[in-house]
Design goal:
Topo_IA_Znf; 13 strands; 6-stranded mixed beta sheet; NERD
């Protein structure tokens, strides 16, 4: 960037599947009945909160006043079948950030073990509950991203790239609800560094760039990297997690009124119990092969290959 040049923020990918998912949920809610209608209403509230949170983060990034390329809602799959839905991949001159956006209700405590505990108020009383660590989730996203980058390289080259990756790619968990209070006084130092509020995001990115000893990338390089992730690694996939609500609505109907079952119905994830759906690998050595994937993704990453006799 020249002495008097204006910082440039490029949004290489701004759209999100969440808004389409919300549209489908609201359409399904008009016909839903009973307990399923309550579940859909709850899911709509969660999705709306998530969209608001991601919009808040996108606003902060657009007004960062520094060179960066932003990719929102990036979906990648490795040759091994591992997948990751990355909320934001932010490319900056010295460091690339994988952001996990959380618009959580209630206050968050992180204890000395790194466990996340949420306190919420309901009916005049306070309740505590453990939640799945967003740091663990984000670390898995980083692992998949690294694996995708290392494909088709030898062991020696992969080891060098792993070392390079750890220097240039950092994960951050961003809590986007401005009312959420974080109590991390007992949290391990490494955990504290990775969990921030949305209003701290830009300053954290700038500080980590200032502290990095790596060479700066030009805006031209950042744009080229953004095009690579968008055109070579990102996979546009249909929204399949709406199927779990459709299945539950069918189960509430009398048997005589139900349509003929689809091939994926009746199969459930052995890890979390949610329905499985048939998917097809779109890249790597397994391209074109079908497999069962969990509708609980991205919280659950269970997959099962489909044998030829099952796929007839």
């Amino acid at each position: 960037m020249g002495l008097f040049s204006k910082p440039e923020v490029v949004i290489a990918k701004e759209s999100s599947n969440a808004k389409e998912y919300l549209r489908q949920l609201e359409e399904l809610a008009e016909k839903a009945t009973g307990e399923n209608a309550k579940k859909i209403a709850k899911e709509i509230a969660v999705v709306k909160a998530g969209i608001i949170g991601e919009d808040n983060i996108l606003f902060e990034l657009k007004n960062s006043g520094m060179d960066m390329v932003v990719l929102h809602d990036l979906y990648i799959e490795s040759v091994s079948g591992a997948s990751a839905q990355i909320d934001f991949l932010v490319l900056t001159p010295k460091i690339n950030f994988v952001l996990e956006c959380k618009n959580l209700f209630g206050n968050i405590e992180i204890n000395s073990k790194g466990d996340f505990i949420r306190t919420i108020r309901c009916g005049g009383r306070y309740y505590k509950e453990g939640i799945y660590s967003p740091i663990t989730q984000n670390q898995r996203h980083l692992q998949v991203l690294n694996e995708c980058r290392n494909e088709n390289h030898g062991k020696v080259m992969a080891a060098l790239r792993n070392h390079w990756f750890s220097n240039f790619f950092k994960g951050l968990v961003v809590l986007s609800n401005p009312k959420t209070i974080i109590n991390d006084q007992d949290a391990p130092q490494e955990v504290k560094k990775q969990v921030i509020r949305a209003d701290q995001l830009v300053e954290t990115i700038k500080r980590m760039n200032r502290e990095s000893s790596e060479l700066k990338s030009s805006m031209k390089d950042l744009k080229e990297d953004g095009e690579y992730y968008l055109n070579k690694m990102h996979i546009e996939k249909p929204i399949t997690y709406i199927e779990k609500f459709k299945q539950e609505e069918l189960e509430d109907q009398p048997a005589a009124e139900r349509p003929a079952p689809a091939p994926s119905e009746g199969k459930y994830c052995p890890k979390c119990g949610k329905p499985l759906v048939m998917r097809e690998a779109r890249r790597g050595t397994h391209i074109g092969e079908k497999f069962w994937g969990c509708t609980g993704f991205p919280q659950c990453h269970f997959i099962k290959k489909i044998v030829k006799t099952e796929n007839k």
